[in-house]
Amino acid sequence: MSTEFSEKLPALWKKIGSHGVMVLSTCAGNRVTSRPVSVVVPDGKFYFQTDENYLKYKQLSENENAALSVKNFSIEGKCRDIGRPADSEAFTKAMKKYFLPAYMNYSKLESERVLEFVPTLIYSWSYELAKPYMEYWDFENFTYKKECKYDL
Hints:
8-stranded antiparallel β-sheet; 26% helix
């Protein structure tokens, strides 16, 4: 892990936050779909719940590659079913804290599943002294890169 990557990571998690409604994009069978999901981020991984009969679950069962979007962040990663909501203490605790109505309404349903989204790449547009740049956090190679986009 590069020193710069590990140094920049705490600020990244602080900017993304511990939870939020994020746009999830999935793809299978040559069909791409997007929808908002309630996401919690208790440990550098993203978690959400869904019904195993929904399209997003079916697409993720066929293709684990997915993307999340929140604020000015694009997050690419791999998603997998980790069981029922009651099986994950970290998920349950975070959902009760941030999305209690959703937790209460859906978590006890027999077909409800928790999906763990592990980031492979996070990137964002930012500005410094009114000049745009991109930041990239590569979670597969544990590298960080900051790239100026325009000379203004």
